[in-house]
Amino acid sequence: MKKKAAPPYFGAAYYPEAWPLEQVDEDIALMKKAGMNVMRVAEFAWSRMEPQEGRYDFNWLHTVVDKLGKASIAVIMCTPTATPPAWLTSRYPEVLFVDENGVPNQHGARRHVCSNSPVYRGHCGRIVTALAREFGRDPNVIGWQIDNELYPHSGRGCCCPVCLRTFHDAMRARFGTIEALNAAWCNRLWSQDYTSFAELPVPRSNADHHPSLLTAWMRFQSDSYAAFCSHQAGILHRLTVKQPVGTDMMPGMGLSYHDIHRSLDLVQYNHYCSMDSLWEAPFWMDICRPIKPAPFWNTETSTCWNGGGAANGYRESGFCRANSWLPFALGGEANLYWLWRAHRAGQELMHGSVVSSAGRPLHIFDEVREVAAGLRKAGPFLNGTRPINTGLAIHYSSLAWWLFTFQPIVKSFSYHGSLVRSVWRPLVEKQYRPDLIDAAADLAPYRLVLSPFLPALDEAGLRGRLLDWIRAGGAWVAGPFTDIRDTEATKFPHGPYGSMEEWAGVRVRYEIPGDPRTFGLRFSDGAETQGSLWFDSYELAGGRALALYTEGPMKGLAAAVERKIGKGRIILLGTQLPPAAYLDLFAGIAAKAGVKPVAEADPNLLVVPREGPAGRGRVVVETGNRKASLKIERLVINLLTGRRHRDVLSLPPCGVAVLKEVRS
């Protein structure tokens, strides 16, 4: 009797439609040699499934799924709606994606169709229904992927007449009257007020458009893709049995992760980091983990180099190992490479893979086999534990992403770059383990929440929920650029903040950009540092100064303030602190909140504590391609090597350890 595949899932994207069907057995033999137990199939195979309108052919796909199942290799089944057949786009050209200049896309790529087109939605509904009826009860299919890498491409997303009308309808539903929209956006400035919703234009990138219009348009694009995904999810949920549904997504907040997953069962995530950026990959997995209770699936990553028509980014020995273990360490249940067998033609024929287009294992094949062997050894521990919630969260918002795209506030400000490099990275290098949460997320699981650069506290009703959470005992660190805009991307008429002056017990005296110079400040313990980016200075009205400016127009005014509210407290920062000063301040705040580092280890070591029915322990991954060490407090066994460790564990570059505590 065949053995059914079980997590941890380890595999690749497989495109049997591009190869002779008789080659499947050869591929499966190599997959087994590599130690793989899952393949992701059919995401671009619409023309093979429906070669002519209304005429379906799934026999070839059943053959592939059955053969994989007999080899104990599970299948993630994908809907093929990112790549419609040529007969569809030629017969129904109105479904094509239209750029901001009114030019329709041509057939021959992917994601070249409009997600709002009712004609295209209808065809998607037919193929997804047919596919779900064929495989919705197939025991070899362990889950579904909707489409491929949904995202509002080409800067503004689709700008066809259907999208523009749908945008008008969305604005009408939000505001009720055009007068209300004009008032919310203060459109009398520059005579930008409209007389009807039909006058709202496509905001082209070569025009100096109102930032409220731009932000609303990109929010609409995100909502459109969420609705497109939800349409397919509804079909799959109706026709499948015990097969979770997700959609693979790429890094970037141009589409709201939180909103798109309302209709989905689990998070699927694609990433392609380089040797130098491997340290940043956990950032996105810290986003994936708290969105859904189910473990996320890393549906795409590279074994070695990336590449379309040209290969790029060779990775050194060990990269594949460390990169492959990251999702399992951080709460994932699957890791799949893109791709299994390299393409022999097309736009991405130079991308790295597991085996070449000729079926020859690449130089990383033994590393892939090593990962597979390690997963088999550590599987029971991984399946029986989850990453521990440390009580720490950082807000990361798609609305903030859109707003700062169109209002950078200060020259060259990068929302993502500043948050990653000045907030997240310093903390994780000191071995704090945060969740990255949307404004809509529940705050109850956390004792300490950081909201750097979160401009609109009314997003998802956060303002009221946040204040209740603080009063109940939460510690909140805010600023700079927090609470400075409403959800329509406009300033508050009564002051620089929506609520912060009242909450923190301050009155803002001056607001000064940190371009081109910085200003000094001194903490109450005498430590001095330089702020940057922006400088809000405060007169105290109930808050307690943590730091004062020492120069410039703000000299003697507060730069950082703390105030108790109920059982909790607010810490307001008027400027961006350098990492060392930020860490010094944070350490004291965290200690009071009961948030501690999870380990004493080198900064290039990712340490993820886990616990559950299978016991307690840590998964450890070196991400800097250099040696690292970890202090061991209790006797542990490395499930990958069988060795026991006490006191100190040393790892080589890109090394991995799965440490389970040994009961004495």
How would you describe this structure to a colleague?
The protein is α/β, with parallel strands linked by helices and 664 residues long. It is 30% helix and 22% strand. The longest helix has 29 residues, at 211-239. 49% of the residues are buried. The mean pLDDT is 96.
Features:
664 residues, nine-stranded parallel sheet, nine-stranded mixed sheet, 17 helices, 30% helix
Provide a brief overview of the structure.
By secondary structure, the protein is of the alpha/beta class. The radius of gyration is 26 Å and the shape is globular. The two termini are 40 Å apart.
What topology emerges from the helices and strands here?
Blueprint: E1 9-14, H1 24-34, E2 38-41, H2 46-49, H3 59-70, E3 74-78, H4 86-91, H5 118-135, E4 141-145, H6 161-175, H7 178-185, H8 211-239, E5 245-246, E6 248-249, H9 257-260, E7 268-270, H10 281-291, E8 296-300, E9 306-307, E10 311-312, H11 319-329, E11 332-337, H12 365-383, E12 386-387, E13 392-395, H13 398-406, H14 415-429, E14 435-437, E15 448-451, H15 462-471, E16 475-478, H16 500-504, E17 506-514, E18 520-523, E19 528-530, E20 533-540, E21 544-549, E22 558-565, E23 568-573, H17 579-593, E24 605-612, E25 615-622, E26 628-638, E27 644-651, E28 656-661
Parallel strand pairs: 1-2, 1-11, 2-3, 3-4, 4-5, 6-7, 7-8, 8-11, 13-14, 13-15, 15-16, 16-23
Antiparallel strand pairs: 9-10, 12-24, 17-20, 18-19, 18-21, 21-22, 22-23, 24-25, 25-28, 26-27, 26-28
Helix pairs in contact: 5-8, 8-13, 11-12, 14-17
